[in-house]
Specification:
432 residues; alpha/beta; TIM Barrel; Lyase, Ornithine Decarboxylase, Chain A, domain 1; 2 domains; nine-stranded mixed sheet; eight-stranded parallel β-barrel; 25% strand; binds ligand LLP
Amino acid sequence: MHHFHYSGNRLYCEGVAVESLIRKYGTPLYVYSQRTLTERYQALAQALAGVDSLICFAVKSNSNLAVLRALADLGSGFDIVSGGELERVIAAGGDPRRCAFAGVGKTESEIEFALRRGIYTFNAESEPELERINRVAARLKRRAPVAVRVNPNVEARTHKKITTGTYENKFGIAFEQIEGVYARAARLKHLWLRGLQMHIGSQITEVAPFEQAVRKVRPLVARLKERHGLEFFSIGGGLGIVYQPALASGPAAWWRSSAARGMITPQQYAARLQPLLQPLGLKILLEPGRFISGNAGLLVTRIEYVKRTGRKNFLIVDAAMNDLIRPAFYEAYHEIVPVRRRAGAQIRADVVGPICESGDFFCQDRPLPKAEAGDYLALLSAGAYASVMASNYNTRSLAAEVMVKGRQAALVRARQPVKAIWAGEQIAPWQR
Ligand code: LLP
C-alpha cells in the first residue's frame, strides 16, 4: 500500500494535488506521504507482534528530520551508520537508547559520542573495532554494549552492489570465526556482549534468503546466548519493495498484486521467521529502511525540452542523477508517470537530466504518455536511497522536500540556495 493515486487526471499524494505543491515549491521536488510511512511501519510491527521486537528504521534510506520524527512518534528505533545520523535522530526527537550503530569504519569520536548518548548497541564488524570500542569505553569508565556482525555467507539474490552477506563483501565477521571472536571479546573488560547482528543485503524480494540465513545462524546465537548472556539478535534489514508499474491499478490492487508477483509481504516474512526466532527467547531487532520509506516518496520534475534525434526521443527534465542516482548507479527502475494524465498517444522515450554524463538518465526507451515541454513527471518509489544519495554535482542545489499528511503539506527541507553550495570554499591566500 501507498498513498499516491490519481483523482480525475491529477496525481495526488494523500489528499493533496501534486500540482499544488509544484506551484508552491517548484521542482525538482521530493514529496513524502506520512500515511504510507506510518502504515508500512505498523504493518511490520503488527506482523511481528508474536516476538519481543524492536524495529530500527535504517536512517540511511531517508534521513529527513520529518521522516525520522514520524517514525520516532510511532516508537521506532533507528539503525545508524555515523555520528551524523545519530545527531539527526536526536534532533528529530528519536531516542539513542533505541539506536543501533552499524558500519565498518566507526571513528573514536563517533564511538565516544554514541557512548555518551547511551546508544543501545554498537554493531561491530571487526576485532580491531571491538578493541577500539573497549578503549574508548575504558577512558569514559563505562561498559559499551556491543554486538558482532556475523557474515552468514548466504546469497541474497539481489543486485551485486547491494549484497552484503557473502564472503566477497567487506561486511561482518565470517560465520566460522564468530565464537572465537566472542570468547576474546569477553575478556575485554569494558565491553558488554549484548547481541549478535547480521544483514545479508538490500531489496531482497523473497523470504528464502532470510530464512536460510536465520536457520544457519540460529544455533550459533543460541550458543552465544548461553555462554555470554546475549539479549538480542538483529536480523538486519533488506525487505524489498515493488518498483514496477503499479499506480494505474490503485493502492489496494497494488498490494494484492505485489503478493501475486511473489513479492515478500510483512505477513509472509513474519510467518516464516517468527517460528524460528521465538524459541531463542531473545529480543529481535530489525533494520528495515527501504520497506518503510521506499514507496513513501516521489520525485517531481519538469520537462524542459522534448528533443527528437534521428533515432530517439528524449524528455529532458530538470531533475538529474545528482538528485536520484539509482538508475545511473544500479540500473534501477523507477516508474515514471505524468502529474496530469491526458488521453492520447504513447511515445518511446528516454527521460534524461541536464548533467553532462551519458549515465544521467531515469529511463531509456520506455513507453510513456506523449508529453510536452512544461509538463511535469513523477518518479515513483523515490522515498529510499534517493534524496539521501543526492550530490551537488554540476553545482546543482539539493532539491526541496515536502511532507504530506492527509490534506496538509509542509516544506520539510528548503531548496538549497546555490551560494550555500560553495559557502565553505575560499580562495587560497596566494590567489588574492
Ligand atoms: N542494516 C544494514 C546494516 C544495512 O547496511 C542496510 C542497508 C540496512 C540495514 C537497510 O537495508 P534496507 O532495509 O533498506 O534494504 N543505496 C542502495 C541500497 C544500499 C543499502 C545499504 N545498506 C539502493 O539504492 O538500492
